[in-house]
């Protein structure tokens, strides 16, 4: 039987990576994402079931989308989450299964997640100082998150472990060198991610973005850095410490976009296909799925949507319109 055509967009980019939000719920209230009181959550029956997610991943993986990243909200708050991970890891064509988490439940779940087949872990930590961590996330949870990281690091299969910190002007400057030391002293690859216009408070402003280049320069001045080659489709610009003590990365979607070779699409918790983080349009896959559409029909809907994938985001352009959804309703 001939292999299906790979999934490509109208700009000739091959799509190989899907980010799946398995819940819009979260146990943190990060300022650059959620309001203090949270957001109105989706009802349970609005959220895709494990079987529905696995079905869509199966369709996608058969047309070349081999990398699956599980996100949220906070994915570990979804009950029985490791069972979903195991279902997806069992799909032949899924080659890489990764997780983005705030780390609060890692101490409890690390073993089950590794056993389920998750290959890579991204843990969001925006400050290494307890009070400032609380200020940013509105949760006094830093010790718990660091314990979770330690437990995870105990599993050789869990590496590389990436620690992602948001780059927010007026906050992150005091975190830069502590995180550089953290990357040099622990088996984690720290990456700084520029603040993006996806916050629920709609407080984003270009002036609030501490750019990756500013952070890189501040680190380089103390701990010289050497650039590592960039993988196609990679979001991070990675550097080695010149003295060999670890790596550090910068994800600069605002100041240095990486859209040209973007290979990503996203699926929201309620089954909407988004072809870009900043998409203003979505394709509903839940309705046809629940109406009995077969795999061929789902594939057709996905190909049609992806063919119209945006060339790039327009954050730095006049007239930029931010999506109605917030980061927690899209997934990282
Ligand atoms: S902004 Fe959109 S096009 Fe650019 S890298 Fe992100 S998902 Fe891809």
Write the layout of secondary structure elements.
Layout lengths: L16 E5 L28 H13 L4 E5 L9 H9 L6 E6 L4 H11 L3 E5 L5 H8 L4 H12 L7 E7 L8 H10 L2 E7 L17 H9 L4 E3 L8 E6 L5 E5 L12 E4 L4 E3 L8 E2 L1 H5 L4 H13 L25
Parallel strand pairs: 1-2, 1-10, 2-3, 3-4, 4-5, 5-6, 6-9
Antiparallel strand pairs: 7-8, 8-9, 10-11, 11-12
Helix pairs in contact: 1-2, 1-9, 2-3, 3-5
The structure holds iron/sulfur cluster (SF4).
Notes on the protein architecture:
With 332 residues, the protein is an alpha/beta fold. It has one domain: Aldolase class I (TIM Barrel, Alpha-Beta Barrel). The chain is built from nine helices and twelve strands. The radius of gyration is 19 Å and the shape is globular. It starts with 16 loop residues before the first strand and ends in a 25-residue tail after the last helix. Iron/sulfur cluster binds next to loops. Iron/sulfur cluster (SF4) binds at residues 253, 257-259, 262, 264, 276-278, 310, 312-313.
Bound ligands: iron/sulfur cluster
Instruction: Bin the strand percentage.
Output: 15-25%
* CATH fold-level name: TIM Barrel
Helix fraction by DSSP (H/I, runs of at least 4): 25-40%
Query: How many strands in all?
Result: 12
CATH classification, class level:
Alpha Beta
The helix/strand series, from N terminus to C terminus, equals EHEHEHEHHEHEHEEEEEEHH
> What's the architecture in CATH terms?
Alpha-Beta Barrel
Instruction: Note the main sheet.
Output: 12 strands, mixed
């Amino acid at each position: 039987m001939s292999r299906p055509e790979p999934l490509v967009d109208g700009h000739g980019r091959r799509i190989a990576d899907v980010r799946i939000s398995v819940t819009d719920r979260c146990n943190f209230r990060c300022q650059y994402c959620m309001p203090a009181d949270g957001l109105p959550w989706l009802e349970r029956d609005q959220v895709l079931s494990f079987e529905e997610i696995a079905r869509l991943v199966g369709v996608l993986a058969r047309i070349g989308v081999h990398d699956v990243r599980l996100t949220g909200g906070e994915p570990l708050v979804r009950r029985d989450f490791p069972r979903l991970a195991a279902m997806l890891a069992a799909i032949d064509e899924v080659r890489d299964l990764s997780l983005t988490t705030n780390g609060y439940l890692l101490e409890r779940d690390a073993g089950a997640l590794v056993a389920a087949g998750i290959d890579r872990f991204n843990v969001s930590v925006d400050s290494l100082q307890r009070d400032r961590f609380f200020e940013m996330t509105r949760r006094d949870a830093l010790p718990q998150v660091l314990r979770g990281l330690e437990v995870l690091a105990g599993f050789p299969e869990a590496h590389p472990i990436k620690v992602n910190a948001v780059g927010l002007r007026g906050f992150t400057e005091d975190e830069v060198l502590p995180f550089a030391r953290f990357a040099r002293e622990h088996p984690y690859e720290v990456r700084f991610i520029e603040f993006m216009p996806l916050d629920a408070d709609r407080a984003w402003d270009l002036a609030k973005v501490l750019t990756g280049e500013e952070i890189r320069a501040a680190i380089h001045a103390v701990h010289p850095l050497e650039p590592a080659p960039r993988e196609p489709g990679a979001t991070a610009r990675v550097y080695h410490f010149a003295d060999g003590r670890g790596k550090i990365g910068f994800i600069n979607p605002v100041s240095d976009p990486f859209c040209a070779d973007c290979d990503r699409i996203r699926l929201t918790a309620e089954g909407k296909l988004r072809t870009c983080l900043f998409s203003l349009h979505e394709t509903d896959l839940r309705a046809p799925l629940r109406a009995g559409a077969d795999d061929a029909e789902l594939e057709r809907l996905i190909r049609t949507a992806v063919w119209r994938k945006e060339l790039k985001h327009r954050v730095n352009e006049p007239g930029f319109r931010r999506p109605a959804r917030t980061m927690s309703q899209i997934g990282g």
